[in-house]
């Protein structure tokens, strides 16, 4: 079973008037950093914060009056749940969403706030899916799969129509890959409209399930990733065959690169995205020579990031840029010594955030002490200058916890 350009154009007609066309914007700042001409598709601006609304709405609008009255069921722990819940409620369709038992309460609460009934079951999404199918069979509900459904794929493919309408001369599209619905739809439309366009998929390094499946190797996925939206262990059967035909390459990105992409998008472009949403830009950052000089489009497919994770990423970004550092300084354990160092650092332009004064648990002489100073600085050069001044003044010092 597959889809074609006509299916995607039919989906676009079904969505028209019910779903806002998200902007495709050029990014001069990111383009300057990467050496290519970057265009960002802002799918993070949908009402529920992700592209999943497209496929969900296309599927829901295909239901017969009898199917709509009976209701639908889906399994998801994130964006698909919210997209289905929001549009089902808006269309007056009873919706049940099965989520794994350990789904964070905030995601459960948000899905319920859109009007769906949430059922918690199982340890994994696979457990939730099996349970959801059982309810669907028992109660005569229509199952709305997050990616392995032609109508879902066609709905996601409308993104390519909008991108190529906005920027017809794109050379390459860089698209996140989880179960494959997003890239399958985009690749189908883009290759039909512009056969020579390159389609590059992006998976998290810890969850390379689609790449491994297409290569015919055992799927090995594990670990905690900040790109949980594409952390899929079982890619779609329909999607994998479409990807096999239309996608030119699938690349993997590390957790560090995903962090850098999220940090750069918020600090340089003022856009908040989740890990999966930043995966396309992460791939561009990771392999800049591949895209240099080309017209590149990428999809920021979601913006639903946990506030604590975002705060941590931003702070780690400051450490990478050496705008927040920790120095370990040795000084005489005598009255006034700490005050002299604090004054010295202030005169050098550093803003002290925290000081840890350690006498007992370091391998230092009994009449000496180590202090760890957490400090705001301007950049790498400023930190190097402060260290040089400390050494010249007779204070042994070293930079701790540096991130390359």
UniProtKB/TrEMBL annotation:
Single annotated GO MF: pyridoxal phosphate binding
Acetylation listed as a keyword: no
Keywords assigned: Lyase, Pyridoxal phosphate
Domain ACT positions: 326-404
Reaction it catalyzes: L-serine = pyruvate + NH4(+)
Cofactor(s) annotated in UniProt: pyridoxal 5'-phosphate
InterPro entries hit by this protein: ACT-like_dom_sf (IPR045865), ACT_dom (IPR002912), ACT_ThrD-II-like (IPR044561), Ser/Thr_Dehydratase (IPR050147), Thr_deHydtase_catblc (IPR005789), TrpB-like_PALP (IPR001926), TrpB-like_PALP_sf (IPR036052)
GO biological process per UniProt: isoleucine biosynthetic process; L-serine catabolic process; L-threonine catabolic process
Family: Belongs to the serine/threonine dehydratase family.
Name under which the protein is recorded: Threonine ammonia-lyase
């Amino acid at each position: 079973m597959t889809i074609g350009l006509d299916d995607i154009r039919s989906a676009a007609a079904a969505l028209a008037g019910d779903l806002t066309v998200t902007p495709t914007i050029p990014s001069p700042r990111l383009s300057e950093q990467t050496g290519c001409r970057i265009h960002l598709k802002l799918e993070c601006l949908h009402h529920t914060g992700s592209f999943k609304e497209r496929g969900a709405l296309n599927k829901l609008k295909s239901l017969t009056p009898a199917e709509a009255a009976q209701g639908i069921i889906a399994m998801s722990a994130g964006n698909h749940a919210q997209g289905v819940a929001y549009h089902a409620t808006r269309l007056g369709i009873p919706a049940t969403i099965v989520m794994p038992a350990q789904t964070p309460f905030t995601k459960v609460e948000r899905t319920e706030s859109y009007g769906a009934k949430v059922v918690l079951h199982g340890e994994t999404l696979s457990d939730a899916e099996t349970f959801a199918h059982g309810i669907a069979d028992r109660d005569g509900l229509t199952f709305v799969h997050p990616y392995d459904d032609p109508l879902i794929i066609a709905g996601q493919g409308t993104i390519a129509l909008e991108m190529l309408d906005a920027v017809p001369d794109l050379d390459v599209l860089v698209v996140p890959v989880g179960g494959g619905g997003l890239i399958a739809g985009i690749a189908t439309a883009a290759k039909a409209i512009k056969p020579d366009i390159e389609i590059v998929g992006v998976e998290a390094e810890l969850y390379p399930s689609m790449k491994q499946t297409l290569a015919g190797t055992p799927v090995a996925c594990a670990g905690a990733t900040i790109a949980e939206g594409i952390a899929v262990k079982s890619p779609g059967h329909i999607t994998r065959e479409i990807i096999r035909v239309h996608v030119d390459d699938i690349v993997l990105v590390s957790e560090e690169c995903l962090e850098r992409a999220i940090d750069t998008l918020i600090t340089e472009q003022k856009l908040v995205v989740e890990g999966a949403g930043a995966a396309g830009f992460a791939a561009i950052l990771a392999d800049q020579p591949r895209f240099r000089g080309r017209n590149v489009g990428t999809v920021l497919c979601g913006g639903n990031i946990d506030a604590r994770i975002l705060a941590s990423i931003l702070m780690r970004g400051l450490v990478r840029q050496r705008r927040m550092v920790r120095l370990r300084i040795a000084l005489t354990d005598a009255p006034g010594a700490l005050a002299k160092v604090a004054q010295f650092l202030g005169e050098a332009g550093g803003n002290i955030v925290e000081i840890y004064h350690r006498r007992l648990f370091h391998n230092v002489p009994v009449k000496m002490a180590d202090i760890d100073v957490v400090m705001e600085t301007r950049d790498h050069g400023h930190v190097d200058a402060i260290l040089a001044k400390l050494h010249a003044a007779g204070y042994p010092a070293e930079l701790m916890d540096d991130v390359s």
